[in-house]
Amino acid sequence: MRHLADLQTPALVVDADALEANLADMAARWPGATLRPHVKAHKTTALAHRQAAHGSPGFTCATIREVEGMVAAGLGGDLLLANEVLDTRRLGALVADGARVTVAVDSPETVEAAAAGGVREVLVDVNVGLPRCGVQPDGAGALADKARAAGLAVRGVMGYEGHLQALPDLAERARLTEECMARLLAAHAEVGGDVVSGGGTGTSALNTWVTEMQAGSYALMDSAYAAAGVGYRQALHVLSTVVSTSAARPDMPAYAVADVGLKALGMDHGNPSIPGGQVWFCSDEHVTFAPDDGAPVRVGDHVLVVPAHVDPTVALHERMHLVRDGEVLDTWPVDLRGW
Amino acid sequence: MRHLADLQTPALVVDADALEANLADMAARWPGATLRPHVKAHKTTALAHRQAAHGSPGFTCATIREVEGMVAAGLGGDLLLANEVLDTRRLGALVADGARVTVAVDSPETVEAAAAGGVREVLVDVNVGLPRCGVQPDGAGALADKARAAGLAVRGVMGYEGHLQALPDLAERARLTEECMARLLAAHAEVGGDVVSGGGTGTSALNTWVTEMQAGSYALMDSAYAAAGVGYRQALHVLSTVVSTSAARPDMPAYAVADVGLKALGMDHGNPSIPGGQVWFCSDEHVTFAPDDGAPVRVGDHVLVVPAHVDPTVALHERMHLVRDGEVLDTWPVDLRGW
Question: How many Cβ pairs closer than 8 A exist between chain A and B?
Fold first, then answer.
């Protein structure tokens, strides 16, 4: 049995018990096909297999590569590419081979691309308030007609209230989620179909309107979602080694440097956190931090770093290690990276 | 011949002429062994071969994987791992096979690790002002003695004035660089050896004290260094495709969404730039931007995105494409990623 101490740092480590608790909690709230876990948050088919074991038959993807990898892993029973694609030939090839792939459309161009590439099923992506992809609600019906005219089956609608996921005021988050979902339901009334897909970890306890929940971050978690009070455990850390320490000087307090930097951490939500220390800044391969009083660190110590944003952190690593009580139970390739 | 339009987006594209101009300009300023290009900025051995062709016999690395990859690519003649390492066995194996690998040390622990793992040559890493790794100047001589006592050859000192690289006031950047280098030279007087290694793209025109310059970003460049006025051309862009557009509405101006997001861009320096548009925000796989008046974009258009920080951007991609006049001349694997 390998131990944490045997791992080359920096390394993604996943607390096996925290992960299982998170998967069980979300599956209890959104059982069976009502949960369509988003694989963009972990990019790891071995973890997706665990989500399937907790009852989810279908998954959400953000990239063509994620769809291809899920099919290759035997998880191609009902995949939603919740993203607009103009060259759908790779998706069409998967469909021709028997995978079920539904793709988001929000324009005549994406409808034409889906039909041309051999995709057979679509969701109309509706702008519910986040200025990103998605047709305006009052244009959704016409786009669905276009899709059907092009020979595509329209399964329903999707709309992502991404701008609300980490809104600090929970009551406000709930009120605005209802507003966003009213737009999505209005579009759905024009579009038809069985599916109303949306949501994320931050609204998964508030969104009572979707027929399927697209949450992803709940499985591994990060400090941003922890601050948003979503109630899932921090299962992912980046294991690092202290490579340098500096004693206090008249002009500077004591600090330490660990070997996890901005090439091992998604930085768009800011610096990572270190329990027992204050993070000063990240460089390419280093984090400089001040240990709390009474928590001195020495060269060679291991430090568990909490990323601020899980999705882009995972995308920087080739593998993640499943651990319990310091033992490495399994090593999973992060096999859905790239495009 | 492949064209830009054939590339799956997002994709790193490198302007072949801009790259060659950048390499030639830096090699003219720092000829031969006075330039030790830092491969952490591009992680691509094919690009390192171009730097070697411009006269640089040695290279700087930030990770063990970078050192291993450079040796495998036949560029192991004089590699500096400008970083502290506690498990040096992989480096020692390279040395035993004939590569020349010098590693930074800043503590008794890293000296012992170098000797134990089979590394034979070190530089004493000196803290010149950036609170990261490095021994204080007044401790450098004693550490060099320890290294020599452990059987290591001490080639000299290194010290990185990383906190000055993008200082907006050039006169202040020059003044503080001199201060930092005074600390490095004081340490060098105690340590001895032929090498005084340091610097980066932002101080490469100001630092007249080092015997070898560790610049890396100059080859590909980014918007942060461009803003710092370093005088190199933007050779790297992330090619993306517009996948969605939204017309102006009473409550929102027109915007577009391209398929390059924070999983394809280093975000620690903030948002990327888009010539002809204003970037609003990045999501995992998208950038939302407002096209400038008179520069409308349509679904399917290609957009060249300028990353804010080149190093972590490159680390997210599997390959980069060398292009001239829209033609893809070559595709280089980004083969030095990971640890």
Answer: 132
Q: What is the fold, at CATH topology level, of the domain defined by A2-10+233-333?
A: Lyase, Ornithine Decarboxylase; Chain A, domain 1 (2.40.37)
**For B284-303, what is each residue's pLDDT tens digit?**
999 999 999 878 899 999 99
CATH of domain B16-220: 3.20.20.10
**CB-closest option in B87, B110, B244 to A106:** B244
Q: Do A107 and B300 touch (CB under 8 A)?
A: no
Q: Exposed (0-12), middle (13-18) or buried (19+): which is B112, by Cβ within 10 Å?
A: middle
* Burial letters A91-122, b for 16+ CB under 10 A, else e: bbebbeeebebbbbbbbebbbbbbbebbbbbb
pLDDT digits (tens, 9 = 90+) for A223-279: 999 999 999 999 999 999 999 999 999 999 999 999 999 999 999 999 999 999 999
Answer yes or no: same fold for A2-10+233-333 and A17-220.
Answer: no
- Cα separation, B151 vs B156, in Å, equals 15
Map out the domains of chain A as residue ranges.
2-10+233-333, 17-220
Using CA coordinates, name the residue in chain A closest to B41.
A284
Q: How far lies A151's CA from each of A111, A145, A164, B157, B216, in Å?
A: 10, 10, 35, 69, 52
The CATH homologous superfamily for domain A17-220 is: Alanine racemase (3.20.20.10)
- The interface predicted TM-score (ipTM) is 0.97
Inter-chain residue contact A286 with B109, CB threshold 8 Å? no
CB pair distance less than 8 Å for A62 and B241? no
